[in-house]
Amino acid sequence: MDDFIIAGKRYKSRLLVGTGKYKDFSETQAAIEASGSEIITVAIRRTNIGQNPNEPNLLDILPSSKFTLLPNTAGCYTAEEAIRTLRLARELLDGHSLVKLEVLGDSKTLFPNVVETIKAAQTLVKENFQVMVYTSDDPIVAKQLEEVGCIAIMPLASLIGSGMGILNPWNLQIMIDRATVPVLVDAGVGTASDAAIAMELGCDGVLMNTAIAMAKDPIMMASAMRKAVEAGREAYLAGRMEKKLYSASPSSPIDGISPMSSR
Length: 263
Prior knowledge:
Blueprint: E1 4-6, E2 9-11, E3 15-18, H1 25-35, E4 39-43, E5 68-72, H2 79-92, E6 98-101, H3 114-126, E7 130-135, H4 139-148, E8 152-155, H5 169-178, E9 184-186, H6 192-201, E10 205-208, H7 210-213, H8 218-238
Parallel strand pairs: 3-4, 3-10, 4-5, 6-7, 7-8, 9-10
Antiparallel strand pairs: 1-2
Helix pairs in contact: 1-8, 2-3, 3-4, 4-5, 6-8
């Protein structure tokens, strides 16, 4: 299958996974390994990656030598909070520039505040961050973020943690068709079929956390998501058959075959 390129680096996996909500670091490690993911996202405000020296460090089980870390701004509600958080991440990770920006609008829906998101993106791009950005499924906002200089657009499929799947494939398709940077579904995936649908639409990848971490068997779900993303990508590349409403077509040729006589 074709490689996924982000920030100039090639990856085999198009599945990006989060590191939160697992019962312990052991389960986190097992699930991420089962997912086959090479890019893992870390909530800087909620996960210790060195800022708390007396607490368990996520990097001890998921080292940056093996995975590409994607620090994110989960829990930030203003541009200023998000910018400050990612500056801290760059300091903790020795100049790391690839980041995931999300600025939330409210604590109940976790819907993005696109005005603050654009504001933060403008500053971060000027400071030479490589910004992957969580946003709504508005194609106009997506284009604005691309024009600001974000290297990947990450629209929600539905609300974070909802597991509702892709509620508006039409807007998502518009964004995919118009974008010149990768488009990845971020938020709302609930099960493997949701991930496959996103990839079949032409998304470049899928990012998820809750769908794996909150499954009854997170490790098995991680494996299922890995396969779904791969299958969805292959189906997209293969090109599905045309839909033909009320037009049946036999799977075997019938030319030259005489109808059976009845008695």
